[in-house]
Amino acid sequence: MSARDEILRRVREAVAGLDPDPDPVVAPVGATTADPVAHFAERVADYRAVVVRVVAQGLAQAVAEAIPAGERVVVPPGLAEEVRAGVPEAIVDDGLTAADLDAVDAVVTACRVGIAETGTLVLDHTEDQGRRALTLVPDRHVCVVRADQVVADVPDAVALLDPDRPLTWISGPSATSDIELDRVEGVHGPRQLHVIVVDTEG
Amino acid sequence: MTGTFVGMPAFPEAARAALADTQLRHNLAHATATIRGKRAAVVGEVEDWESLRLAGAAVKDRALRDLDQQLVTLEEQLTARGATVHWARDAAEANAIVADVARAHAVEEVVKVKSMVTQEIGLNEALEAEGIAAWETDLAELIVQLGEDLPSHILVPAIHRNRAEIRDIFRRRMATAGRPAPADLTDEPAVLAAAAREHLREKFLRAKMAVSGANFAVADTGTLVVVESEGNGRMCLTLPEVLVSVVGIEKVVPTWAELDPLLRLLPRSSTGERMNPYTSTWSGVTPGDGPQEVHVVLLDNGRSRALADDVGRQALRCIRCSACLNVCPVYERTGGHAYGSVYPGPIGAILNPLLKGTGVDEQTDALPYASSLCGACFEACPVRIDIPEVLVELRSQVVDSHREDRVPKPETAAMRGAGWMFGDAARWARLGRVSGLVGRVLGRVGGRAGPGGRRTLSRLPGPAAAWTDARDLPAPPRESFRAWWRRTDGRLDEEDQGR
User: Fold this and answer.
1) Distance of CA B221 to the CA centre of its chain
2) In whole angstroms, how far apart are CA B268 and each of B43, B98, B171, B497?
3) How far apart are the first and last CA of chain A?
4) Backbone angles phi, psi at B244, to 5 degrees
5) If you ran DSSP here, which 8-state letter would residue A5 be given?
């Protein structure tokens, strides 16, 4: 008997007599807040990420200010023009190798969803966010979030996201607590996370 | 490179050695107290934590109730998205599958994101035997691997090490595994983490193959989920050309939407954060992004045995958060090594016997007794595994499995003797008279006064000495109850008043 058949047989015998439950479990609703965008900004900052809020006209300048002079920047091919304008010298990713990415200092991307309650950015790696490696290897990640992309809590995000796409949920910079449970920012992922929240109104 | 738990002494003996190690107890007490405080604060923020726990338990139960169907769906969906699915009955089969993939690509090293299941099956040692180096990339796992040590906690495997010990390990060992530690390495956590970053980055950039586990496997979308903090997981899941994920069959979540309560429960319960820094999800192969060859090994290794246990089945809900370890008074004093397994603490005390079976080896049989049954683990568990209930059930299974032993355990012999004594009234009366005689002698010569003035014996002779190591034994009364009743007809006399 193949391993597959034998495992399935053992499992079938183990659950014989149990009634399957056909209906998905409905979890309690998530947290809500009067001002999700402010809540999001506060929660992201709590992870020692840098958070700035701008109006649309200030976006390019905010992006430029997020990157120290002289840093080499990479951007995904589909990044919106109003964001690109902040980093005119940026290299556009056309399938750079991991070693190439290791030689750049920063990356600027959009995101798919922001989660207020947990201070989380979710990337679904479409054209304005780029491949997964892009936001991983460089040491500084500048991420632009539109206020209308911010949802209240995890269930709202799960409902919006497409599981067929690879997803990366980011909550603050890379961190470890493995040494005496002292939190240290910056291990293998970006050590600096810079979040620019673009207020949709005005 | 790492040690193994094979041949570890049973819990009582291993625990005694751990209790004598004051540095270990200090490191553990500090770590568990810190994490308990963080967890309590973020759990307190959630308005309806109890409903969330119930939902998390219900999702995992729903997956387990028709696990055969769920697994078939998972396989279909993974295959449809370009992954290759393998099935492994046990550790040897799983290890052979991973080694085959490595050989097919002629790789001599693989990078690994921390995974309980690959520790469970001893993958690193199996690959080493094939001439393939497996590099652990989680900071704590790196410390354990370089130190040729064993993990002692599910979440923080090097919890038993302090910063000075970690600096020594890096200084001594990093050069043998790749980039050496910098000469000016201090014991600051930030400096140690930076050294690990430099050491591992060269490995990430050149690795052709990675091995991971998965926190969850969503059946209806074929999605695997890995939850981590450092970004080493993202490195392994993204940069190499080939990815092999070893997934226990109990990791199934039926639908994408049902991930939600688990993602809300896990980080708060485990690291005491609202959300962990990185969660990665992927379904098969994504053209142009990440590994272009993806393998998933679905592993049984005792899980179907646990699933067949009506009381123990709930242990398969476990999402490996380690909250039960951090609240356990036994774990806090003995540390993880005493449990002799990659799954230590209260969950390990039930998971190991459920996976391996009772009556198989002494080490596993000791685990259901490695608990005071205080119940703190059940309170902390985000998916409401009633660990004390399972412990009690497993204790009875351990006893049952030894009923036919040719050489009974001392406890069994004592209980058989007691059964013989209680079985016959005349026998019992005779024993009462003997016991009274013994009591009169011992009451006069031995022991010291216990509560109520009764004499107690602090040390029994011979094999029974183990019983009195941690307990006082009351001296037998000078007169049996029956004799006293015959003499007084149930009325207190002067002699009784004076006792």
Assistant:
1) 30
2) 6, 33, 34, 59
3) 67
4) -115, 125
5) H
pLDDT string in tens for chain B (499-residue length): 456 788 889 999 999 989 999 988 888 999 899 999 999 999 999 999 999 999 999 999 999 999 999 999 999 999 999 999 999 999 999 999 999 999 999 999 999 999 999 999 999 999 999 999 999 999 999 999 999 999 999 988 998 899 999 999 999 999 999 999 999 999 999 999 999 999 999 999 999 999 999 999 999 999 999 999 999 999 999 999 999 999 999 999 999 999 999 999 999 999 999 999 999 999 999 999 999 999 999 999 999 999 999 999 999 999 999 999 999 999 999 999 999 999 999 999 999 999 999 999 999 999 999 999 999 999 999 999 999 999 999 999 999 998 888 777 777 777 778 888 888 888 888 887 887 777 777 666 666 777 777 777 777 777 677 777 777 777 778 888 888 888 888 887 666 654 5
Which positions in chain B touch A174 (Cβ < 8 Å)? 229-231, 277-278
Whole-number Cα distances in Å, B217 to A20, B231, B258: 19, 20, 11
Residue type, B468: T
Task: From B150, B110, B111, B148, select the one nearest B130 (Cα to Cα).
Answer: B110
Is residue B278 within 8 angstroms of chain A, CB to CB? yes
B residues 9-38 lying closer than 8 A (beta carbon) to A: 27, 30-31, 34-35
CB proximity under 8 Å: B 191-230 to A: 192-194, 196-197, 200-201, 204-205, 218, 221, 223, 229-230
Instruction: Return the half-sphere exposure (C-beta side, CA atoms, 13 A cut-off) of residue A12.
Output: 8
What residues form DSSP beta bridges with B136? B112
pTM for the full predicted model: 0.90
Of B229, B172, B161, whose CA–CA distance to B195 is shortest?
B172
CA distance A179 to B143: 10
Nearest chain A residue to B97 by CA distance is: A3
The minimum CA-CA distance between B345 and chain A, rounded to whole Å, is 18
Question: What are the start-end ranges of the E strands in B315-409?
Answer: none
Beta bridge partners of B262: none
Q: Find where tokens 């750049």 sit.
A: A104
3-state secondary structure of B231: coil
Strand order from edge to edge, sheet including A167-170: A150-151, A113-115, A120-123, A167-170, B278-282, B223-228, B216-218, B252-253
Cα B306 to Cα B234: distance, rounded to the nearest angstrom: 32
Determine contact: B146 vs chain A, CB below 8 A: no
| Coil vs helix vs strand at A64 | helix
> Would you call B48 an interface residue with chain A, using a CB distance cutoff of 8 Å?
yes
Written as six digits, the tokens of B132 are 């393939």
Q: Does residue B62 contact residue B94 with C-beta atoms inside 8 Å?
A: no
Owner of token pair 């961190």: A175
- What is the least distance, in Å, from the CA of B291 to any CA of chain A? 11
DSSP B316: G
